[in-house]
Structure formats: C-alpha cells, structure tokens
C-alpha cells in the first residue's frame, strides 16, 4: 500500500502528511487528537541525513507539543551502505534517533510504529522497534538479514538455514514470524484507522516483547533468561 492511501485510511478525520526525499512528516487527527507523523517511503536507505531529520522531528514534537502521540511509518531497506556514511558515523546518527524516540517516551509521548511496506535491519531497529508498540500490515516484508547473506556471515549452509526457518521464527522473514517473536504487537488486517486509535489509547511504555515472544512460542528463552539474571536463578542445565 502506498503511503498516500495509507495516510487517508489511518486518518479519516484528515492529515497533513507530505513526502520530501523519502522522508514523511506531518500530522493527523485521531479521535479529535493531533498525532505527529514521521517516517520513510520508497524503501528508503537510512543515511545520516534522514536519520537526523527524523530525530529533529521527534525533538520538535517534544519541545513544541508536550505529550502529543507520535506515529512512525516504516518503509526502509536499512542503513545506507556507503563509505561516506560509515566514515561520518552512521551508527551514531541512528543511535541518536533511537535516543530521541526514547526521550519522547520518557516525556510522556505515546509512540506507535507501523511497518506498511518493508523493514530491514538497522533502519527498523532504530525506528519502529523503538516505539511503545510496533504493528505491521499483512503484506509487510520484515527481516534483519536475508538467508543468503546470513549464510555468508555465519558460514552455515543456506539450505540448513532454510530448514531452520521453517520451524524457528528467528531465522525466518515476514510479519507473522516477528509477531511470534513479540517484535510486533499485532498485524492490522482490517480498519487501520480504528486500529491506530486503539493503539494510541493502549500504548504502554513498558517493554513487553520478551513476554509476548514467550507466550507465542517464538522466543522461548529470552524472558526466562532475563528473569534468571535478575534473580540469580538457573534456567539452563549446567
């Protein structure tokens, strides 16, 4: 779904969202409440410029509109793979974006992420996954790394990784697998406007992804291990 159609469906009461060089910004009205909208489109690669402008938009909302909800629309191919961006410290720019989103949360802004097209690697981690809750449309493509690239990095044969992907969502791309792992709160298959209104109302700053992953059978050890670290208990055999 293109971002224009999506924005119209998300904000039937009206919106001012526009696009400039793959960056989405503006506001929308949800149940009479104004929501700041930031995001990306056209599978945008996240370079230092777009990371910084997203961070600036978040900080402007914190400064000028205390408590206003923030919606992050995600469509990215991940961080931009250029020598220039690496030399200028793209990791620091993306970390800055994540910190700004966390600052907004700490200041009382409810933050919702929505993957409406593609979400890959670091571009997703420092945007949608930084929200109080992240959602996706049914046809969204989500993955940290393709299996062929994973095979090159891990030296595990791609055929073996393909077998593992059939039974373990950690190895498999797609919104349903991220739902099982707790990375997504839900997949929006119906009225996205009503879904957004409910997501804003229910936004919770407490990170519950480990618990959701455990309940859904997608991450069976993250929650027990974290609890064991906190209590000093043992969860794995010696």
Automatic annotation (TrEMBL):
One Pfam family this sequence matches: MdcE
Record-linked InterPro entries: ClpP/crotonase-like_dom_sf, Malonate_gamma
GO molecular function (one): lyase activity
Domain of life, source organism: Bacteria
Annotated NCBIfam families: malonate_gamma
Keyword DNA-binding belongs to the record: no
Keyword tags: Lyase
Gene3D superfamilies in the cross-refs: 2-enoyl-CoA Hydratase, Chain A, domain 1
Organism lineage: Bacteria, Pseudomonadati, Pseudomonadota, Betaproteobacteria, Burkholderiales
EC number: 4.1.1.88
Name the UniProt record assigns to this protein: Biotin-independent malonate decarboxylase subunit gamma
């Amino acid at each position: 779904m293109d971002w224009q159609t999506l924005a119209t469906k998300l904000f039937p009461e009206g919106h001012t969202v526009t696009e400039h060089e793959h960056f989405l910004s503006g506001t929308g009205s949800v149940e009479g409440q104004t929501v700041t909208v930031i995001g990306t489109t056209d599978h945008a690669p996240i370079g230092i410029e777009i990371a910084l402008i997203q961070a600036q938009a978040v900080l402007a909302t914190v400064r000028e509109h205390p408590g206003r909800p923030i919606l992050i629309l995600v469509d990215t191919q991940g961080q931009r793979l250029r020598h220039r961006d690496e030399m200028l410290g793209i990791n620091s720019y993306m970390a800055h974006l994540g910190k700004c989103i966390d600052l907004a949360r700490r200041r009382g802004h409810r933050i919702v992420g929505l993957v409406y097209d593609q979400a890959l690697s670091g571009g997703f981690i420092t945007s949608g996954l930084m929200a109080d809750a992240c959602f996706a449309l049914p046809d969204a493509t989500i993955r940290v790394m393709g299996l062929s690239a994973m095979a090159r990095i891990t030296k595990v044969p791609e055929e073996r990784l393909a077998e593992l992907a059939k039974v373990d969502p950690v190895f498999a791309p797609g919104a349903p697998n991220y739902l099982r792992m707790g990375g997504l709160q839900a997949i929006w298959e119906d009225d996205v406007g009503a879904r957004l209104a409910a997501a804003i109302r229910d936004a919770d700053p407490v990170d519950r992804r480990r618990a959701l992953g455990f309940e859904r059978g997608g991450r069976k050890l993250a929650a027990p291990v974290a609890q064991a670290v906190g209590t000093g208990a043992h969860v794995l055999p010696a």
